[in-house]
Amino acid sequence: MREDLNQGLIDFLKASPTPFHATLSLAQRLEAAGYQRLDERDAWRIEPGGLYYVTRNDSSLIAIRQGRRPALDGGIRLVGAHTDSPCLRVKPNPELYKQGFWQLGVEVYGGALLAPWFDRDLSLAGRVTYRAAGKVESQLVDFQAPLAVIPNLAIHLNREANLGWAINAQNELPPILAQLASGERRDFRELLAEQLGREHGISADAVLDYELSFYDTQAAAVIGLEQDFIAGARLDNLLSCYAGLQALLDADGEESCVLVCTDHEEVGSCSACGADGPFLEQVLRRLLPEGDAFARTVQRSLLISADNAHGVHPNYAEKHDANHGPKLNAGPVIKVNGNQRYATNSETAGFFRHLCLENEVPVQSFVTRSDMGCGSTIGPITSSQLGVRTVDIGLPTFAMHSIRELAGSHDLAHLVKVLSAFYASRDLP
């Protein structure tokens, strides 16, 4: 089972270079399992025991297993994660020409570790909006092949490189796509129109706009002398999306279960399809009774916010509180913060710990050092938006927000097991 799950994650990561592709990949897997797509613009007819999903902006998804037991009696079991990861996004007018090279201007999306982006084989993917036969349409593209690179400056010309230096995102990050003859120019939108034709057989009159990101073409892999680790891009937080999906697909139809995978977490979640927007509440209000019954159902529900945790790094162990250094391959981590950067409280943490103990899943705790700032997740945002009780958890990870992150190869199976138990749990606290 562990090997199958890890390979499934690797395949999912390869198919999901952007939030748009991740959402499409989730939708395809749900449809293969019998889930029916809902359109927010249509009236919905929801049946007990029904399987449904809905997307917004092509980059966020909510999947619903409508329980045979009324949600007002048993509450809803929600698992939340996010589809986006820090990356380099192409600017609207990106063409740059320097020293005979064609480059594209980029902006940094989210809190990316920038140094690992140098000297990687990069490709390009995302959503393109175009006009064809008088209609405005959108389509996903993925060049797949390595077509760009951000070369480092040689140490001979930057003797201070190993002492650390500030990377100027404006000047040092534009990737190189090609070397051009003197006076030659390229049109980036023409390149996108050609890709639409190659990938989808679309003959576009004009490329109107796009949301495109560079990504590393090196595939994720299980690595290590004893195959102890998974290395790959976007583990934060597609790992949790995949674990939540697998747990949902394993669930039976007795209890109401929801998987929420939203975009824009890395930039604050404040969007129409982000956790700080109305997406989840609007969907739930269409599934549940109105008024008093809706509030009562929410209060009987519980959200597990699943987002990666900081594993204790052997070279930087001092960055952790000595009593709260999560180990890779030692199970999911309950994340706690007294200042509400995480939404965990003693009741929700106790329930999650109980689930782990009952299902023989190892469990750990994380609290950041008292002299360091703490990151956050969709947990506090969703909890404050919806009023639902929440526990923040995640799998230990190294190099979070790097172009290539590292997690334990045993931990995915641990997380799927406990999330499956959560979806099947009869009684919530």
From TrEMBL:
Protein name, UniProt field: Probable M18 family aminopeptidase 2
Stretches of the chain forming a coiled coil according to its record: none
Binding-site residues for Zn(2+), renumbered to this chain: H82, H156, H401
Keywords: Aminopeptidase, Hydrolase, Metal-binding, Metalloprotease, Protease, Zinc
EC number: 3.4.11.-
EC class name: hydrolase
Family: Belongs to the peptidase M18 family.
The UniProt record lists the keyword Transcription regulation: no
InterPro entries assigned: M18_aminopeptidase_2, Peptidase_M18, Peptidase_M18_dom2
A single Gene Ontology CC term: cytoplasm
Protein's GO biological process: proteolysis
Reported cofactor(s): Zn(2+)
GO molecular function, one term: zinc ion binding
Pfam family, one: Peptidase_M18
